[in-house]
Amino acid sequence: MTDTVIANSTHVARKAHQCDHCSQPINPGEQYERTRAIWDGSPGTFRCHLECRDCARKMWKMRDYMWDEGILLSADIEPEDHEWIREEYPIVAQRLGFAEGEGSEDPSP
Ligand SMILES: [Zn+2]
Q1: Is residue 59 assigned to a domain?
Q2: What would the 3-class secondary structure string for the chain be?
Q3: Residue 84 belongs to domain with CATH number
Q4: Ligand 1 centroid vs 37 CA: distance in angstroms?
Q5: Containing domain of residue 78, as a range?
């Protein structure tokens, strides 16, 4: 079963969306990636934060997953992934709710 990507583009949100990776809001003015594709035979649109996309992509590579296996951050990460995500993508860890020192430090530049 292969998903067919029809279009893949980066947008600035004009209204609020929900990230399909972390389930957190994509606020107006934030950049997000929109992918139109055929998922398991039916057309759909996938929206996500750019950091969430990068994080998921890196995880695919590290684990040798195929594109059509995919990783959904909110569903597919394991507890042992938390540390890696906290180090590499602290903002994603924050969105997913396992950031360290929640609120006490700001890791983003
Ligand atoms: Zn996200």
Answers
A1: yes
A2: CCCEEEEEEEEECCCCEECCCCCCEECCCCEEEEEEEEECCEEEEEEEEHHHHHHHHHHHHHHCCCCCCCCCHHHHCCHHHHHHHHHHCHHHHHHHCCCCCCCCCCCCC
A3: 3.30.1740
A4: 18
A5: 4-96
